């Protein structure tokens, strides 16, 4: 039934008010056209008399007729077919009751435009056909000259065709706009899904690093404990030193794991157990970049690896590796620089610069690598920035505090 009536979306109070204003505007235009159309069409009074055309003076009946042809416009968006049929039926029945000039067709035109803009193309064609048939078969007003009748018929037909095309064009434009919005929303959802996948992959990578740190620390504890067991009777002092080393190693491992354990809260599943690489492999990155034809400098004089926890060292190397990969794949750079340092004994800082295409190349590549780097630094309570390099290319800067936010107590 809703489809038969042509019901569309539900309207708000503001929508209803707008449609009332449209109906009143159409009524006012119809009244103005009724009184001025003849004078505007045939300004010479002698010609009007020769053609038998009288200047119309509004009467209560003519005003009521115009009101009946425009009143259905109040429901034009809620019930477009009801509004259209109401307007054209009222126009067809009442125009023959006027003398000298045809009743304004503004009401049916607005209703046709609305129907074409809100209903499928087939319905718009049917509506225009109905209007055309009524224009042809509806009796003209009495005492109206043949010439004026034909001119009015041609004018109303042309206006009806224009209204139908305008409504259809508006509908097509709105559908294209909705399709563009839906594609943009789908692309945004895809980007969010990909970002979540990248973040999850980064968490798995960090979990692997926790595994490696734990395995390394427990191996050291096992070796020192075995030594203490052998020395406890014949060399108590050496055994005590071995036990102290066990305690120190265990404490350092606990501190590192505690700093990274938050990563595991949102990630499930087994972690890979491949060996983890640290900044001792920075020379490999330089070789990788130079192998791609990029002149690369590495400055690590201010970096004391012994003072940097293993998990931070591994994270900094992972960020540098990702930055190097982006330079080779996307930047189109001729040179790059990697600076690694410990500042004031409290912050480990990594800066990677290139002279490539700059931030625009990151936008083209989708910048998913940056999401992983930023997430890793965030989890380590550090700061991350991806900006334009002083060389005109791209800069990656990461700063990670060496001390955990929560001090570890004995």
UniProtKB/TrEMBL annotation:
Q: What is its EC number?
A: 2.7.13.3
- Which segments constitute the Signal transduction histidine kinase subgroup 3 dimerisation and phosphoacceptor domain? 202-267
According to the UniProt entry, the coiled-coil residues are 170-197
Task: Report TM segments.
Answer: 20-43, 55-75, 81-112, 124-141, 147-170
What reaction is this protein's catalytic activity?
A: ATP + protein L-histidine = ADP + protein N-phospho-L-histidine
What GO terms are given for molecular function? ATP binding; phosphorelay sensor kinase activity; protein dimerization activity
Q: Which InterPro entries match?
A: HATPase_C_sf (IPR036890), Sensor_HK_TwoCompSys (IPR050482), Sig_transdc_His_kin_sub3_dim/P (IPR011712)
Which top EC class is named for this enzyme in its record?
Answer: transferase
Q: Mind naming one GO cellular-component term on file for this protein?
A: membrane
Write one Pfam family the protein is assigned to. HisKA_3
User: What keywords sit in the KW lines?
Assistant: ATP-binding, Coiled coil, Kinase, Membrane, Nucleotide-binding, Phosphoprotein, Transferase, Transmembrane, Transmembrane helix, Two-component regulatory system
Span of the secretion signal? none
Q: This chain belongs to which protein, by name?
A: histidine kinase
